[in-house]
Amino acid sequence: MIKRPSAVPTVQAENDFTIVTEWRFAPGAETGWHQHGYPYVVVPMLTGQLLIEGKDGSANHAALTQGVSYARESGVEHNVINANDYEFAFVEIEFKDRPLKTG
Q1: Cα–Cα distance for residue pair 67/44, rounded to 1 Å
Q2: pLDDT band with cut points at 50, 70 and 90 for residue 101
Q3: Quick check: helix, strand or coil at residue 32?
Q4: Domains in the chain and their CATH numbers?
Q5: DSSP category for residue 28
Q6: Which of 31, 33, 26 has its CA nearest to residue 48?
Q7: What is the residue-wise DSSP string for 60-99?
Q8: Segment 42-90, tens digit of pLDDT
């Protein structure tokens, strides 16, 4: 198992309907395995590559462009790794009014 530095989350705002978190990744840093409890939007602050590991053993590179957002549903377990040789950052906005999908 590879020992990587941890990405650093900073909650910027939280209220009854959203959680806004800035994520900063040193080169090679990871979030660790996690599953989102809410649907979310990611807003990249830089342009670069992230490596997304899935629990099924998959590993896919995702090209992100500064300011170009994407949205995902809750429920997928994954690990996110900075695949750049520079710090990477994005803002994640979770929507509390739509909890984790089950079945």
Answers
A1: 5
A2: low
A3: coil
A4: 8-95 (2.60.120.10)
A5: T
A6: 26
A7: EEEEE-TT--EEE-S--EEEEEE-SSS-EEEEEEEETTS-
A8: 999 999 999 999 999 999 999 999 999 999 998 889 999 999 999 999 9
DSSP for 37-67 reads: SS-EEEEESS-EEEEEEETTS-EEEEEE-TT
Is the pTM value of this prediction over 0.70? yes
Please give the C-alpha separations between residue 38 and each of 18, 20, 89, 99, in angstroms, as whole numbers: 9, 12, 20, 5
The tokens describing 18, both together, are: 């959203």
Which tokens belong to 35?
């599953």
Tokens read off for 33: 């395995």
Cα–Cα nearest to 42, from 63, 16, 15, 14? 63
Q: Tokens for 91, please give them.
A: 């803002």
The tens digit of pLDDT for each residue in 10-30 reads 999 999 999 999 999 999 999
